[in-house]
Amino acid sequence: MSQERSGVRRIGVLTGGGDAPGLNAVIRAVVKAAANNNCEVIGLEDSFDGLIERNRSRRLVPKDVTGILRVGGTILGTTNRGNPFLYPIETTSGTRDYSARCVEMFHEMKLDALVVIGGDGTLAIAHEFSKLGVPLVGVPKTIDNDIVETTKTFGFDSAVSFATEAIDRLHVTAEAHHRVILVEVMGRYAGWIALYSGVGGGADVILIPEIPYDVEKVARRIRDREHMGARFSIVVVAEGAKPVGGNVTVLKAADGVSLERLGGVAALLAVDLERLTGKETRTVVLGHLQRGGAPTSFDRILATRFGARAVELLLEGKFDHMVAFHPPDIVAVPLAKVVGRTRTVPPDFDVIRTARAMGISLGD
Ligand code: F6P
After folding, report:
1. Is the full-model pTM beyond 0.85?
2. β-bridge pairing 57-60 and 40-44
3. C-alpha span between 77 and 304 (Å, rounded)
4. Using CA atoms, how far apart are residues 223 and 279, in angstroms rounded to an integer?
5. CB neighbours (10 Å) of residue 98?
6. Cα torsion for 315, 318, 322, 323, to the nearest 10°?
7. How many angstroms separate the CA atoms of 65 and 123, rounded?
8. Distances from the Cα of 349 to the Cαs of 155, 191, 202, 353, in angstroms?
9. Catalytic residue among 19, 144, 146, 157
10. Mean of the per-residue pLDDT values for the chain?
11. Which DSSP category does 279 fall into?
């Protein structure tokens, strides 16, 4: 690797969007890989807010990232409120255009390039900064696994592991009390977490946004199990699941700064299922528990590979790209191919077919 080619010596790193297990592993990898190539790293706090004022950043050396590989969250802080291209901000130099301020501070802080670790929103913002001449590389993060052009994002495996363990625990109590338990998992408009944790946890019904459900069919599946002698059922519901001809359940509408907040579909469905099956039905929402906790070994390795490769790309001068997992390799994909798209579960996906082969109802 040669800095001579790109001239990159001082790298800013930031984490944006909702946190996901593995963010710290990427930061650690960036700091170590940079140090081993005689580059300096500046950690920017709370996503692009770290480029508003000088005191929102700090130098990171290998000693600062010792021990964070296995820790969830992000030592840099994050935010999923706001897009710097949409509104002005107050700074110590008065009211300024947020994105212009970031570019100005990037140069004032003598940064040569950025590593932007984030989900679809943050990567779209990164692409806009690229267009303004900021050299950068993106690293895809999200428990939702909904970023295109990469088969996996880090954070997903950890969320699925946690959800699977939760389903295991709920199985035991559902069976003991002959109840139906609905487990609502995250994932926004994609059903990856529900599908994987549902298959891994042996659910009886899995409802995902990509396959609108018919509540009568879900109830029939539960009644059929009862007739078979299985007097309990586990229903895994993605927060973005919706009935045929209906809409997603929204807890809070989008307000121009924050995205729409999904949630509550399991509670609504539980009322209908209790009525249709006559069985006692309970609901558990796993919520942010899926984002906390330590990253799994898979996520630690993927995050470390992403971080090391991101530094390599910067040194090669391959900017405006995202690192991506194309098993068994880590490759570079142009950010332009990623923004504005969502990776949902294809209806003919192999794991969907596997679920059906196991007799799991998908509500259709
Ligand atoms: O994108 C990750 C995610 O956890 C989604 O699964 C969920 O819908 C959303 O973020 C929740 O965001 P917040 O923490 O802002 O409520």
Report:
1. yes
2. antiparallel
3. 19
4. 9
5. 20
6. -50
7. 24
8. 21, 12, 18, 6
9. 144
10. 96
11. S
Rounded CA gap, 167 and 162, in Å? Answer: 9
Q: Can you tell me the mean pLDDT for 40-67? A: 96
Task: Specify the residue with its C-alpha closest to ligand 1, atom 8.
Answer: 188
- The alpha carbon of 67 and the centre of ligand 1 are apart by a number of angstroms equal to 26
pLDDT at 4 over 90: no
Query: What amino acid occupies position 297?
Result: S
* Model pLDDT, residue 284: 98
Residues lining ligand 1, Cβ inside 6 A? 18, 80, 119, 142-144, 186-188, 239, 261-262, 291
* DSSP-derived secondary structure for 281-345: EEEEE-GGGGTSSPPPHHHHHHHHHHHHHHHHHHHHT--SEEEEEETTEEEEEEGGGTTT---PP
CB 302 within 8 A of CB 156: no
Closest CA to 218 of 209, 208, 207, 227: 207
14: closest CA among 133, 150, 109, 148?
A: 109
Query: Distance, CA 68 to ligand 1 centroid (Å)?
Result: 23
Apex 101 CA angle, 99 and 106, nearest 5: 95
pLDDT at residue 212 tops 70: yes
Pairwise CA distance, residues 102 & 51, whole Å: 5
Strands (E), 134-173: 136-140
Active site residue 144: yes
Q: List all residues 6 or more positions away from 353 whose beta carbon is below 8 Å from its beta carbon.
A: none
| Per-residue pLDDT, 1 | 47
Task: Report the nearest-CA residue for atom 16 of ligand 1.
Answer: 261
Q: Tokens 């209790």 appear where?
A: 274
Nearest CA owner, ligand 1 atom 10: 18
